[in-house]
């Protein structure tokens, strides 16, 4: 079903791309747009994940560079029955995270330094379990390709004013067609992003809660991330708004409520759904991550400190936080 849905998405975005070409350059413009869209679909399948990671200046880390974070992802992936994904850190103060990759065998998860700084270990586990749920559901392919093509559609619409509407091309609509393409195309691309994001996030929340075993870990994390996003600007996300739907919380400024133009469900609604899930499952939904893995037994710096800590979360109770790896 996921592959069928992906094919439908690619067809819809390709048709939209061709429609823009027709409105700008007539039949010849439509043919050129089809060729470009076909090439972009193939390129996106193999390379879109790398492009998105590069857009956000993500740096790959290993167990030596980020032992706690890498170990956490490895243990959660084992819980989910997934291959070990590549692990990335984004040097950005805004707390956020996303997953990418064309399939579970070629997946990557990325978290910002802001997320690792602000959240407890349990909350980070909930967030990364959510991202691994996207991998397990094969959401990452559709998310990444959508980000790439939606960005291209918006860029083409911006170019429409410069290359369309002149009398020496085959544009049957003239300047009206160019204006319509410039306005309608980005809106249509955004609607596609919103359509796939809303139901996808709820499903990933639920599966992520099952992977880590504690719905309230993710619920607590969502509240902290939403608060951080409101106050901390993400320059890379603002420059690449087509990738916004990939993050666990919309990273763009101006995110408000669960309305027609929101790329994500309302955070309060997501938290309420996780609280209801916790009640249904008696608070856990199975053995929790902290009960089955040694990682969560280490005290976190957001609660009582009883010993030293290691890894990207900082030092012990009597020493300032320290970071390891390329993000510090």
From TrEMBL:
Q: Which cofactor does it need?
A: Zn(2+)
What class does this enzyme belong to in the EC scheme? Answer: hydrolase
Top-rank lineage group of the source organism: Bacteria
Q: Catalytic residues per the record?
A: 131
Please list the residue ranges annotated as the Peptidase M48 domain: 68-277
Q: Which residues cross the membrane?
A: 7-24, 30-48, 141-163, 175-196
Select a single GO molecular function from the record's annotations and give it.
metalloendopeptidase activity
GO annotation, biological process: proteolysis
Q: Which NCBIfam families does this entry report, sorted A to Z?
A: PRK01345.1, PRK03001.1
Query: What protein name applies here?
Result: Protease HtpX homolog
Species this chain originates from: Stappia sediminis
Gene encoding it?
A: htpX
């Amino acid at each position: 079903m996921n592959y069928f849905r992906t094919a439908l998405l690619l067809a819809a975005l390709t048709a939209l791309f061709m429609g823009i070409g027709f409105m700008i350059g007539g039949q010849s413009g439509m043919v050129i747009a089809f060729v470009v869209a076909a090439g972009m679909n193939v390129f996106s399948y193999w390379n879109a994940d790398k492009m998105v990671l590069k857009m956000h200046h993500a740096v790959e880390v290993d167990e030596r560079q980020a032992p706690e974070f890498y170990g956490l992802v490895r243990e959660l992936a084992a819980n989910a029955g997934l291959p070990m994904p590549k692990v990335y850190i984004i040097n950005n103060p805004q707390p956020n995270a996303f997953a990418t990759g064309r399939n579970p065998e070629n997946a990557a998860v990325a978290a910002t330094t802001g997320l690792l700084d602000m959240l407890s270990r349990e909350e980070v586990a909930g967030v990364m379990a959510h991202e691994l749920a996207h991998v397990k559901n094969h959401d990452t392919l559709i998310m990444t390709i959508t980000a790439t093509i939606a960005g291209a559609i918006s860029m083409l619409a911006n170019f429409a004013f410069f290359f369309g509407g002149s009398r020496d091309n085959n544009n049957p609509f003239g300047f009206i067609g160019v204006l319509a393409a410039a306005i309608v195309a980005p809106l249509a691309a955004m609607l596609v992003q919103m359509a796939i994001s809303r139901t996808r996030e709820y499903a990933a929340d639920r599966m992520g809660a099952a992977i880590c075993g504690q719905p309230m870990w993710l619920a607590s994390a969502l509240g902290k991330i939403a608060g951080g996003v409101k106050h901390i600007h993400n320059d890379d996300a603002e420059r690449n708004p087509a990738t916004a739907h990939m993050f666990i919380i919309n990273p763009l400024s101006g995110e408000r409520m669960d309305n027609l133009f929101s790329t994500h469900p309302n955070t309060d609604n997501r938290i309420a759904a996780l609280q209801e899930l916790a009640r249904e499952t008696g608070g856990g939904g199975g053995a929790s991550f902290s009960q089955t893995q040694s990682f969560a037994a280490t005290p976190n710096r957001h609660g009582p400190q009883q010993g030293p800590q290691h890894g990207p979360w900082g030092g012990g109770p009597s020493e300032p936080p320290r970071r390891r790896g390329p993000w510090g």
